[in-house]
């Protein structure tokens, strides 16, 4: 996957994770809140991977 694809997937995971986390907080559902936090972390990692690929010319 290239830089842009990694960043796009990362952003999508961060947005979905934030929505899950907020829904979990609003409904007092700790499991859903934790799932959302984990998905946001996955998104952050994907964005970082995309940044590295951009700096290295997609050689990663």
TrEMBL record:
Residues 6-55 form the CsbD-like domain. Residues 12-26 have a biased composition (Low complexity). Residues 27-40 have a biased composition (Basic and acidic residues). InterPro entries: CsbD, YjbJ_sf. Pfam families: CsbD. Residues 1-60 are annotated as: Disordered. Signal peptide: none annotated. Belongs to the UPF0337 (CsbD) family. This is CsbD family protein.
């Amino acid at each position: 996957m290239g830089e842009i694809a990694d960043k796009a997937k990362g952003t999508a995971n961060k947005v979905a994770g934030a929505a899950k986390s907020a829904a979990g907080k609003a409904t007092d559902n700790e499991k859903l809140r934790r799932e959302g936090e984990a998905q946001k972390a996955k998104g952050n990692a994907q964005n970082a991977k995309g940044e590295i690929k951009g700096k290295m010319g997609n050689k990663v």
